[in-house]
Design brief:
Blueprint lengths: L5 H4 L2 E4 L6 H12 L4 E3 L14 H14 L3 E4 L11 H20 L4 E5 L8 H17 L7 E5 L15 H7 L6 E6 H7 L8 H13 L3 E5 L2 E2 L10 E2 L8 H9 L7 E4 L4 H16 L15
Parallel strand pairs: 1-2, 1-10, 2-3, 3-4, 4-5, 5-6, 6-7, 7-10
Antiparallel strand pairs: 8-9
Helix pairs in contact: 2-3, 4-5, 9-10
């Protein structure tokens, strides 16, 4: 069987703005930065009020996805907190998340990313129960042709329900290991939470632990360098190779068998120029380490 191109096995893309239209804006940006995949917001990420769907733009994006196979992911609003002790917040969270899942289905999106949530208080067990009550009904009514729900652990700040890989076991167990509950891992979050991706074998160790806890559930990686050191619990993204994580860790991630079939998306600063460079860097790292130069060519320098 012919080997799949790297772009099909590990597509590399960006979070794309949708100004100018869901399809028009996101696809223009994807072309400008060389993205092989996109992540988008389908409603205001910082408000409960949901903007109406532009049917023509949604149809155009879906048509493009069906024609090209472009991987598309939807990021749910930041306000969502499925572990909140406030019943109104949980009700709004469920409605907002279901809206994103429905819109994702319209776009033929592969997944909808949602943050794992916070207990707010120190009672994590109660918060896990609230999370289950909020997410389980949504998972159970997902259509076969709809997107998966992708759970994103956070950087370990506050009372977040998941930060390190070991937190994922109890979280997924509460959801009865639902087959549509899958994962989006953010490299900056993992590093901030204490997973040292820069250590010798750090990436391999992380992926081995992930395999032991939640094998086969990784669908998306938010590829972000970190402005802060390991264990900082600070979620501050940096451009690839310019932060505390560095290029070697991203090369290891892109070369590891556990990420075969996983999409990588940058959420890095610098807008279009910065993300174009980051995507180009990741594509280079995806190809592996540079071949050693033949010393016999030195005489030609």
């Amino acid at each position: 069987m012919p080997k799949q191109p790297a772009a099909q096995r590990r597509p590399i893309g960006a979070h794309a703005p949708v100004s100018g239209g869901l399809a028009t804006g996101s696809l223009r940006y994807a072309a400008a930065v060389g993205a092989e995949a996109i992540q988008i917001f389908v409603t205001n990420p910082r408000a409960w009020i949901r903007r109406p769907v532009d049917g023509e733009q949604a149809a155009a994006l879906r048509q493009h996805v069906n024609a090209t196979g472009l991987p598309v992911f939807v990021h749910a609003p930041y306000l969502i907190n499925v572990g909140s002790p406030d019943a109104v917040v949980r009700e709004r969270s469920a409605a907002s998340l279901w809206d994103c899942l429905e819109r994702g289905q319209l776009l033929a999106a592969r997944g909808v990313i949602v943050h794992v949530g916070s207990a707010i208080t120190a009672d994590r067990a109660a918060a896990i129960g609230r999370m289950k009550d909020t997410l389980a009904p949504l998972l159970d009514k997902l259509p076969d042709d709809g997107p998966d729900l992708l759970l994103e652990p956070m950087a370990g700040q506050g009372q977040m329900l998941c930060a390190v890989i070991s937190d994922l076991g109890p979280y997924l167990a509460a959801l009865d290991w639902h087959p549509r509950a899958n994962l989006c891992l953010d490299t900056c979050h993992l590093f901030a939470a204490g997973h040292d991706l820069t250590a010798d074998g750090g990436v391999a160790s992380l992926l081995a632990e992930l395999s032991s806890v939640a094998a086969g559930r990784l669908r998306l990686v938010h590829a972000n360098d970190s402005k802060d050191p390991c264990g900082s619990n600070k979620d501050r993204h940096e451009n690839i190779g310019r932060g505390s994580i560095g290029n070697a860790a991203f090369r290891a991630l892109l070369q590891h068998p556990a990420t075969d079939g996983v999409t990588f998306v940058v959420e890095t600063p610098g807008g279009e120029p910065g993300q174009r460079k980051d995507i180009a860097t990741l594509k280079t790292l995806r190809r592996g380490p540079p071949k050693p130069r033949d010393p016999r060519l030195a005489s030609l320098d």
